[in-house]
Amino acid sequence: MKVLIVFAHPEPESLNAALRDVAIASLQEAGHEVQVSDLYAMNWKPSVDRADFPALDPGERLKVGAASHAGFVQGALTADVKAEQEKLRWADMLILQFPLWWYTMPAILKGWVDRVYAYGFAYGVGEHSDRYWGERFGEGTMAGKRAMLIVTAGGWAEHYSERGVNGPIDDLLFPINHGILYYPGYTVLPPFVGYRIDRFNDARFAQMAEALRERMRSIDTTAPIAYRQQNGGDYVIPTLELKPDREEAGTRGFALHLTPAG
């Protein structure tokens, strides 16, 4: 399997960097090919602006979606964006690795998504009609590929539990897992999350490293998150609301978009 790790942490000597190296070594030992996009080391430009669209007429108002589509179709996106898109085409598996900052990914990684996920490449594909609403949420450019998150958090696991003050970790990561990975078609694996990382000692790191090795050994067999497919019959087209007869009694929020067990 070909694996792309998009890594977002500014400190080369961080625990995150050490975990990244553990993941790379484990994947390579299992026979996988690995590429890494280290965004801080690359000095990745995180913000979308006119410079991203060299073919845009200087007198034309910037509409990011339209400019993104035109640039993609014309092959006129910037070299750094096209290079990352080629890595995504190459990879069978995408791993986004980052520390959880203010309940989400670092800005540099969000900027990677904003710029690389061009209209026509990661979204805006497929037929839109009264029976089918584009190739997304289970379909799309990345269909058939796998993806997952490696995330570290400073808080306790209990802080991110069902009754924890931060809210359930699966809810916090839903916009990334469902909205960034599943949207363009990836089969999304459960995230690997490390807690209380600011209070690690050698023994705790060794324990987490072994758990990560085990996850990397099983990336091609791990059961994915059971998200509902948009065009699979569970949603009303074109409003994209879940049909009332598809939900289990008492289910609310993001859990509505999971296929019931069994």
From TrEMBL:
Naturally occurring in which organism (per UniProt): Silvimonas amylolytica
Keyword Zinc part of the UniProt annotation: no
Signal peptide range in chain numbering: none
Keyword Transcription: no
InterPro entries assigned to the protein according to its UniProt record, in alphabetical order: Flavodoxin_fold, Flavoprotein-like_sf, NAD(P)H_dehydrogenase_qn
UniProt family annotation: Belongs to the NAD(P)H dehydrogenase (quinone) family.
Domain of life: Bacteria
Protein name stated in the entry: NAD(P)H dehydrogenase (Quinone)
Domain Flavodoxin-like fold: 1-214
Keywords from the UniProt entry: Oxidoreductase
